[in-house]
Amino acid sequence: MYYARIYVDLFETTIEHHLRLIKKQKMELYRREFWINEAIRTFRYSFFLRYYALFESHLRYICERIAQEKNLELKLQDIRGKSFLDRFNKYIALVANLNPVRSHQSWDEICIYAQIRNIIIHNNGNLKDLNISNMLRNYFQNVSSIHINRKMQICMRKPFCCRVLSHMAKFIARSYL
Known about the structure:
Elements: H1 2-24, H2 29-70, H3 84-95, H4 107-123, H5 134-142, E1 146-148, E2 154-156, H6 158-173
Antiparallel strand pairs: 1-2
Helix pairs in contact: 1-2, 1-6, 2-3, 2-4, 2-6, 4-6
């Protein structure tokens, strides 16, 4: 977790460096604002997506380890579900016969991250013309470190990146390690 927080700081330092470069360029104000916003979104999206991918890899590893320890024939990839997290929960609860992870205190938060990940990957973080869940809508209204800008794009602040790390670390630490 300590290293991950340093990584957040490194990303933030990189963002600040790029913002200084952009501000030095001679261009119209609207273009400067566009590139400033793009730099911030690009780096924070990159951070979020990288850590989400790492998170899912850890969950796959947990399933592989459980399958090996319990000599289970079914593997995570054999399970059907509406999402990776749904498949992971089914595997843990139904195949491995352990407590379902959906009862974990960070489960809802992790499910929100999966929705955010999909919106970034499939729609460049743009919510325009998307029908989002009430859970996600409430999340954007109640969590100050992430918001929707006037262009209907997801905007993350540094505290959101720290929040993501914290919830993912708690979830993994309490998920059968």
